[in-house]
Amino acid sequence: MQPLKFSMLSLAVATALVACDESGNSHSTKTFKSIEFSSTPAPATADAMAKAHTGSVATVTYSDGSTAQYPLTYNKLFGVKDKVGGNAHAAGQLYNYKMEAIKDPMGQPVIAETPDANSLLSVGGNLFLVNHLEYDWLLSDGSTAYSKEGWYTRMPMSMLLTALTQASDGKLSIKSQRPIDFAGVNGLWIPCFGSQTPWNTHLGSEEDYDLQYNPLASNYTTTTAGLKALNEIYYKSEQTANPYHHGIIPEVTVNADGTTKVVKHYAMGRGTWEMSKVMPDGKTAYFGDDGTHGLMALFVADKSGDLSAGTIYAAKWTQTSAEAGGKANLTWVKLGHGTDAEIKALADAASFSSIFDATAPTSGACPTGYKRVRAGSTADECLIVRSGQDQAAAFLETRRYAALKGATTEFTKMEGIAVNAKDKRLYLAMSAIRDSMTDTSGEPANDIKLAKNSAGATYSADLQAGQKDSAGNAINSDYVATNMYVEAALLGEPLSAADALGNTANPEKIANTDNIFFAEKMRTLFIGEDSGMHVNNFVWAYNVDTKKLTRILSAVAGGENTGLQVLEDLNGHAYIMSNSQHHGDWDTGTNAVVDAALAKIDKFDANIGYISGLPAIK
């Protein structure tokens, strides 16, 4: 796919009014109370459709009842084709394990047009931006990579580190830039969304559905193609890739001098992780498991601030309603305890056949002793965990083991995760409610039985302390999700027929929720779309107190909004960051205005930028 026009919302500083008392000491006379955004109109002209932009105004209300208005404006920081900050290559350049620039069969640089996660971090008084480059599947001439000259459907990927300077008015500028080297952790495969830990590091992802090995299902050829790309492109046929080294959550620590340390947390389990989000306690984490027949996973670290050891659980969905996105109670099945070192050692030697005895069902039934599961694939499997392999199964085949233990593996397209600390509420983006989340006869479990909604929903879950797992043992966390439900404004609305522009979901509602981020002081959930149902995807602001949903950003036509992060007060300025990717990914010939917009778009570029105008939220 191609580039997104990014946006970070740089929210400029709001200076509190100050008065002096009789002793000469200063004190603030008003403080921030609330914020409300006006709506950016859905674009209707080719020019508006072809660019990332905002027309929103933020109205801030202060404690003394006064208000102030702040118009928002888009600013570009850099694009994936730009050479900036002393980087000898384009920002989106991909590299092999020797940090040599990868080139395609025509000798052209392979540049990813798919920026995703952002982490803008302040470390020792310096600002650093960590960016994901999610995937690349096109050659430089725009043809599908795998079909040309025997090339590849996917590429080994990368992260960027950009040092920034911050002016007195909040403007961000590039100081230096370099790629982050992942050779020490066996490379990086499809880093999707990410988050920031309470201890100020970047928590990434590996959405490795290309590497989830399944010899009994039709996606085995995809696995083979992914390994081919890693072996031949990343390792240059000098080393052999292992699928069990991928699908692992990576953590990037950035030091004040710009050096980085990268680890992969094998103790957090293996899946097609969209992202992981650590709760305010510094030890509880939830995951977005993208794909079909996914699980909802919970990780509880042994100690706060350290993700290298802990226990993983998988949710059991017990449905209480099928209406409006559904409602359910959640219980948790313990899968196992492990450390990074233990599970990495298992991964080094593991194979699918060393973990499982597997066969395909016959007429929907398994041989005696086997259990039929559907996990990560539409194909059923009959599995037995081999003797002594339970820990390997739990951490390296987490979905399958969850299904074997009775947890629910029927979630579809689980994307971003966010937390509202004050209300102890978790938010989960389900990009689409379909396939395994519908009432499907013949499934091994069929726990989730909802009406199909292709536009998806953002679910809420209440977090509680004092919970026990399904075996009656205490879960050592105060942030255990006990239910799931959908607030009315956060349910997508498919259209019965496409509108004049080609939208197949209501453009006044969210379609295909993806990246989400909750801003505590603003009391606002920000939501970015990854939709094939809106010609232009949007970023939305949802106030959890007023229940008002507002469109605040429109991406380039066909582009996906990614990389949401909110910094409410960074050195006296606020920033909301939102990237976009695969610009122009929309069919031509359905509407003349849309076609005119698509003709204006550079499909092989993507912008990192920010919207200025908002005050710091103190």
From TrEMBL:
Signal peptide (from-to): 1-19
Lyase found in the keyword field: no
Keywords noted in UniProt: Signal
Name this polypeptide is given: DUF839 domain-containing protein
Top-rank lineage group of the source organism: Bacteria
